[in-house]
Amino acid sequence: MTTHTISDTGVMLGRSMKHITRSLDTIITVTIMPIAFLLLFRYVFGGAIQANTDNYTNYLMPGVLLIAIASGISYTGFRLFNDMQGGIFERFNSMPIARSSVLWGHVLTSVVSNALSVVIIIGIGLLAGFRSSAGVPAWLAVAGILLLFTLALTWIAVLAGLSASSPDGASAFSYPIIFLPFISSAFVPTDTMPAAVAAFAENQPVTSIVNSIRALLAEQPVGNDIWIALAWCAGITIVAYVLAMLAYRRKIS
User: Fold this and answer.
1) pTM score of the predicted model
2) Which helix (H) or strand (E) covers residue 106, if one does?
């Protein structure tokens, strides 16, 4: 991005962040469901689940963090839809600003707000018994994977927000994404599943992302999972970005 685009994006980010800070209940709402899943699986189902681990909270955390991000990006689609319907985009496009900065403002707001949600959930996880001896490089790698996952889902949210015909439609796309961790290695090993379910679980993006984060936090070899996870995140981001920009150009043309 040029200097002009970067400065315009900063202004759009500041505008969107004001909406977040004025309604902190959004972040609270986003974190409630993942925290509920964490506590439910840890204290209700945990004793009956065989995950071949001494600390089931550690096993749960990667999947819970992905659910939190999937929940949070639904608000990006909703906010973007409201801007489109309210005529804000038309006003911005009449000003001498970079057109892409309007979308990037929403995207970066999603990154910041989801990062806050992740920090809150990790704090709750620590209270529930989550522990990690991973060093700074491993934590940075985890943060990088979560960032890429957030960007991938956020651009899907942007596409939904631009294409939806109702506020519910702008956020409903997130429900299948929230459900994906339940058919992955997030809560139980895939080899405990029926063959057809296991085949799907082992070949969808959440499993490789969860396995990579879990291995990094446990200071274990990551193997090919991290490359598969990065390929999924990068591929989804590129496709969603291209489609979102095409939809955006159609809307403002």
Assistant:
1) 0.86
2) helix 100-127
